[in-house]
Write a structure and sequence with these properties.
Length: 131
């Protein structure tokens, strides 16, 4: 009986540790954000589409058809492959545009707090490099 309890306790500890590892990993960029995705990375995409393209999305963290359509519009407007998914190319483009906007506003002496906050909160949640 004691051995069975010890094994269950060890199993629960391993599951809890795995959960912590998965949670920590989730803080890094998802390789692709698209339909069915949810959480903070999707909120970051929705905020970016609202800030960059005035998409008027509800920032609810659920990647639905309106978010997909806004991403497709962004991709088309920025010469990207249009698939409605935020992978390395689209993520990198979004980060580059926001970085340039933040840099320009700071250079001109007025910081856009919304974009600066997006940059610090969301940069690591989207794949892609600033170019």
């Amino acid at each position: 009986m004691k051995r069975r309890i010890a094994l269950r306790t060890a199993s629960i500890g391993a599951i809890a540790a795995a959960g912590v590892a998965l949670t920590a990993t989730a803080a890094f960029a998802a390789s692709q954000i698209g339909p069915g995705s949810s959480g903070q990375p999707v909120k970051c995409v929705q905020e970016a589409m609202n800030d960059l393209d005035s998409a008027g999305l509800s920032v609810d963290g659920s990647y639905g058809p309106l978010t997909s359509s806004a991403v497709e519009t962004y991709q088309s407007d920025h010469g990207l492959s249009v698939d409605g998914l935020v992978g390395p190319d689209t993520g990198g483009s979004i980060k580059t545009v926001i970085y340039n906007m933040v840099y320009t506003s700071e250079r001109d002496g007025h910081t856009d707090e919304t974009l600066a906050t997006w940059e610090t909160t969301c940069d690591s949640l989207l794949e892609g490099s600033i170019s």
